[in-house]
Amino acid sequence: MQPQTEKKISTIFLKKGMYVSNLDRPWLDTPFLIQGFFVKDDEEITLLKKYCDHVYIDTDKGIGSGHYVHEEPKYKTNDRLEHNILHNIKQVEYPDKKTSSEELPVARMAIDEASDRVVSIMEAVKSGKQLKIEDAKSVIEPILESIIRNTEALMWLTQMRQKDAYTYAHSVDNCALAIAFGKHLGLPKEDLRTLAMGLLLMDIGKMKIPDAILYKEEALTENEFRLVRSHVAHSVDILSKTEGVSVDIINIALTHHERFDGSGYPSALVGTQTPVYGRMAAIIDCYDAMTSKRPYGEPVSAYTALQEIYNWRSKYFQEELVEQFLQCLGVFPTGSLVEMHSGEVGIVMAQNKTRRMSPKVMLLLDKKKKKLSEYISVDLMNPEEGEEELTILRGLDPGAYGIDPAEFYL
């Protein structure tokens, strides 16, 4: 049993004069021979950072810190959702109440306002202010209602809009993807809210990481990578101190970097040791990161990202959830650039749920890759009489043939 004066901190907050009483791993797995010692110099701090994400300090024996990590919530899952996923049961059906074109103006307003509010929320936390759950709720509700009315409109906009701040845009996109995924699985509204809130806030701890490291274009050093990984502990700490945040939301922040085979962090959980919300968040987070422009790499096509995630099923991600995620987004997700067998190039505008390989597409370039004077909308599943029957050859990376998706953020 830990003494009451023993406090958990991230190694990034270690200082000379602290008394380290315990580590986040067995002492024998580290070069520290004495089990319990005063931190005496920067070299010792560097060594602790190399081997540990967190340590325990005894504030009765040494100096304290203003940055304690609250005890992590007990891992728990949603047993009802676990059962429904394994048996392909949908609790709620959400028929579209509006067409994509009808919902588009409302969806645009929802995502624009959400983006502005998220910047305010994140910047407030960065400046040391307390997170307010009501501010986060004001972000997710308009997105939730829009996706319930029609999924395609908002999914289109998340792909088309200009993303100028990766961390902030990533949070909004994750939130929208979570709602769309949950809707596809037939989750009740309260579950959708939990998922949306968790995905929106799971990276809020990155506000405690220096921008120079978050936006570094070169490869991170080992210590920098460890510092970035500490955002999980910061997120858990921030959310644990926020009134109205459920343990499910905190657990999403805690476990979204875990992997099905135990190769993730911070706890190397295996299989269903990770709560189902966390397993869903891991897939969504990976997909959006791969398809977004990051400081250290260019985005890949949605098609390529989904193929990679499919290849990682049963390794990094639960197979049943991967299958459902692919069904949710389609083989060529809304907003994807695609090339036809005939040579034309277009953007996927909407899915045909009964034939995922044949979505609705807006053609932008002709067979010779020349820009069309007027864009042409075609339904690959139901071509109009006299139209050439088109099929998709491949997905294209963002920016292929000089096409800027932001031009179509109408």
Explain how this protein is built.
The protein has 410 residues and is an alpha+beta fold. The strands form two sheets. A five-stranded antiparallel β-sheet has the order 8-7-6-5-9. Strands 1-4-2-3 form a four-stranded antiparallel β-sheet, with no helix packed on it. The chain is built from 14 helices and nine strands. It starts with 5 loop residues before the first strand and ends in a 14-residue tail after the last strand. It has three domains: 6-58, no CATH class; 79-329, Orthogonal Bundle (Hypothetical protein af1432), CATH 1.10.3210; 337-408, no CATH class. The mean pLDDT is 90. A hairpin with a 5-residue loop joins strand 7 and strand 8. The longest helix is centred in the N-terminal third of the chain and has 27 residues, at 100-126.
Key words describing this protein structure:
3 domains; four-stranded antiparallel sheet; five-stranded antiparallel sheet; alpha+beta; 14 helices; elongated; 410 residues; Hypothetical protein af1432
Radius of gyration: 23 Å
Number of helices: 14
Order of helices and strands: EEEHEHHHHHHHHHHHHHEEEEE
Number of structural domains = 3
Which regions contain 5 or more consecutive residues with pLDDT less than 50?
none
Q: What does the oligomeric state look like here?
A: single chain
CATH architecture of the largest domain: Orthogonal Bundle
Can you identify the CATH class of the largest domain?
Mainly Alpha
**Strand residue content:** 5-15%
Shape: elongated
Stated plainly, the CATH topology of the largest domain is called Hypothetical protein af1432
| Main sheet makeup | 5 strands, antiparallel
**Widest beta sheet: strand line-up:** 8-7-6-5-9
Give the full name of the CATH homologous superfamily of the largest domain. Answer: Hypothetical protein af1432
Tell me, rounded to a whole number, the average pLDDT: 90
Instruction: Tell me roughly what share of residues is in helical segments.
Output: 40-55%
Q: Total number of β-strand segments?
A: 9
